[in-house]
Amino acid sequence: MIPTLLVALALLLLLGVPVAFAIGLSGMAALVAEGQLPFALVPQRAFAALNSWALMAVPLFIFAGELMNACGISRRAVAVVGRMRGGLPIVSVLASMFFASISGSSSASTAAVGTMMVPAMRRRGYPAGFAAALAAAGGALGPIIPPSIIMIVMGYVTGTSIAALFTGGIVPGVLMAGALIAVSARRARAHEPAAAGEPGGARRFRRVLLEALPAILMPVVVLGGILAGVFTATEAAGVAVAYGLAIGFFVYRELRLRHLRALLVNAALRSCVVLFVATSAFLFAWLIAAGRVPDRLGGEIEALTGSALSFLLVANLILIVVGMFMESISAIIVIMPILFPLALSMGVDPIHFGVLASVNFCIGMVTPPYGATLFVSCTIAGRSIGEVARWTVRPVAAMVAVLALITAFPEVVLFLPRWLGMA
Amino acid sequence: MSASRPEPDASHPLWRWLEGGAALALALMAALVIYQVGARYLFDSPPSWTEELARYCQVWLVLLAAPVCLRRGMHLAVDLLSPRLPPRLGIALRRGILLLVGLFGLTFAFHSLRLLGVAALQTSPSLGVSMVWPYLALPLGGVLIAVAATAAMRAVRREAVPRDDLP
Question: What is the reported pTM?
Answer without folding.
Answer: 0.89
